[in-house]
Design brief:
2 domains; 11 helices; 19 strands; TIM Barrel; 7-stranded parallel β-sheet; Lyase, Ornithine Decarboxylase, Chain A, domain 1
C-alpha cells in the first residue's frame, strides 16, 4: 500500500462504515432508541468527526465519559442529547447547565448537588440515574432505590432515564446477565413510567429483553467484536498503516531487537517499520522464539512481527514474500480489512477497545465516508 500523505503511520477512519454500523444496530434494536457511545475520543476515531457522522446517520443521543468530551460533541452538534457517564463532577453543575449536558447521577452526593441546583434555579434540569446491578463500579446501591424515589418525589423531579450496565454481556450465556436483568427490573419498579437503558453493544446483540427504551452501543459502532465466540458482523471502520523504513538481510543465528529474545533459524529478510509502542502498538504484540507475536499485512500476505517492539519501530519477517519486496515508504497494514483489530488484541491478551483507544499521537488521519464527511 502506497501511503498517500504524511511521512509516518496513517490512520484511515471510514465514516461511511461507522454510519452503516449504527444503522445495522438500529435495525436490531427496533422499538428502542439507538444512542451512540463516543467517549475516549470516539474510541480513538476522533470525537467531532465520528459524532457528526453518527448524527447524519440518525443518532440523536450520545454518551461521553467526561464534561470535556460532552463539550466537544455539543460544539459539533448543537441539538444533540448528551449524557455524561462519569456523572456530576463536584462543583460543575453550572457548566453542565450551560452546555446542556445531562449527568448520569450515581450517588446521593451527586443527586443532592444536582437537585439543589434545580431548586436554586427553579428548573428541573435533565439527568439520568445509574444503579449498580452487579459491577461495583459507579451507581446507586440497589437498597438506595426507595430513598432516591422518595427524595425526588418531594421535589416532583423525574430523571430522563434510569440505567445500569452489564458486566458479562460479551458472554451471552453467562448467568450474571439474567441476574442483572432481574435486579434492574426491581429498580424500575420504583420508577414507573421512566425510560430505561441497560444494553451496551453486546447486550444489544444478546436479545430484546435487554433493550428497554434505549440501547447504548460503543465498540460495535467502530467495527470491534462485542460478543465472544461469534463472528463479528460489523464493518471495518479503522485501518492503520505504518511505513517501511528499511529492508535488510539477516543471517542464521543473529538476534532481533532488544533483549535478543528472537534468534533467526534461517537467513532472513526483515522489514523495519516506523511504528512502536509509542504509537499504540503494544509491547505484548512482540514475537519471540517461545511465543509468536502479531502479524501485519504486507503485499498481500500476513508476515510475523519478530523481536521486541521498540518505542518507535518494529521488525517484520518478510522472507516468505520472496522477491516481492516492499520499498521504503510503503505502508504495511497493522490492522484493518486484512488483519482485524480483534486478532491483534487476542495476540496481545487484551481487547480491541484498548488498541482503539491507544490511537493517539503520531498519525496522519484520513477520513473517508461517502457523504458522511462534514462539509
Amino acid at each position: 500500500m502506497k501511503l498517500t500523505s504524511g511521512l509516518g503511520s496513517q490512520l484511515t477512519v471510514d465514516l461511511g462504515a461507522l454510519a452503516r454500523n449504527w444503522n445495522a444496530l438500529d435495525k436490531v434494536s427496533q422499538g428502542a432508541l439507538t444512542a451512540a457511545v463516543v467517549k475516549a475520543d470516539a474510541y480513538g476515531t476522533g470525537i467531532e468527526m465520528a459524532a457528526t457522522a453518527l448524527y447524519a446517520a440518525g443518532a440523536r443521543f450520545f454518551f461521553v465519559a467526561t464534561p470535556d468530551e460532552g463539550i466537544a460533541v455539543r460544539t459539533a452538534l448543537p441539538s444533540a442529547h448528551i449524557f455524561v457517564l462519569n456523572g456530576l463532577y463536584p462543583g460543575a453543575a453550572n457548566l453542565y447547565i450551560r452546555q446542556n449536558l445531562m449527568p448520569v447521577i450515581s450517588s446521593m452526593d451527586m443527586l443532592e448537588e444536582w437537585l439543589n441546583k434545580c431548586v436554586e434555579r427553579n428548573e428541573a434540569y435533565p439527568s439520568a440515574f445509574h444503579f449498580d446491578t452487579g459491577m461495583n463500579r459507579l451507581g446507586f446501591r440497589l437498597n438506595e432505590a426507595v430513598t432516591v424515589r422518595e427524595r425526588i418525589a418531594r421535589l416532583s423531579y423525574a430523571p430522563q432515564m434510569v440505567m445500569s450496565h452489564l458486566a458479562c454481556a460479551d458472554i451471552p450465556s453467562h448467568e450474571k446477565n439474567r441476574t442483572q436483568l432481574a435486579l434492574f427490573g426491581s429498580v424500575l419498579n420504583q420508577f414507573p413510567g421512566i425510560p430505561a437503558s441497560l444494553a451496551n453493544s453486546a447486550g444489544l446483540m444478546t436479545g430484546r429483553d435487554y433493550h428497554f427504551q434505549m440501547v447504548r452501543p460503543g465498540i460495535a459502532l467502530y467495527g470491534g467484536r462485542a460478543v465472544v465466540g461469534r463472528k463479528n458482523p460489523m464493518a471495518t471502520v479503522v485501518t492503520l498503516h505504518a511505513p517501511v523504513l528499511q529492508v535488510r538481510e539477516a543471517r542464521t543465528g543473529e538476534t532481533v531487537g532488544y533483549g535478543a529474545s528472537y534468534s533467526l533459524s534461517r537467513d532472513s529478510r526483515l522489514a523495519v517499520i516506523g511504528h512502536g509502542y509509542a504509537d499504540g502498538f503494544l509491547r505484548a504484540l512482540s514475537g519471540s522464539n517461545a511465543r509468536p507475536g502479531a502479524k501485519v499485512f504486507v503485499r498481500g500476505r500476513l508476515c510475523p512481527v519478530i523481536g521486541k517492539i521498540s518505542m518507535d519501530q518494529s521488525i517484520v519477517d518478510i522472507t516468505e514474500l520472496g522477491p516481492n519486496v516492499p520499498k521504503p515508504g510503503e505502508g504495511v497494514e497493522i490492522f484493518g480489512p486484512n488483519v482485524s483489530l480483534d486478532e491483534q488484541a487476542d495476540v496481545a491478551g487484551t481487547i480491541g477497545y484498548e488498541l482503539l483507544t491507544a490511537l493517539k499521537g503520531r498519525y496522519t488521519r484520513n477520513y473517508v465516508g461517502n457523504g458522511y464527511l462534514p462539509e
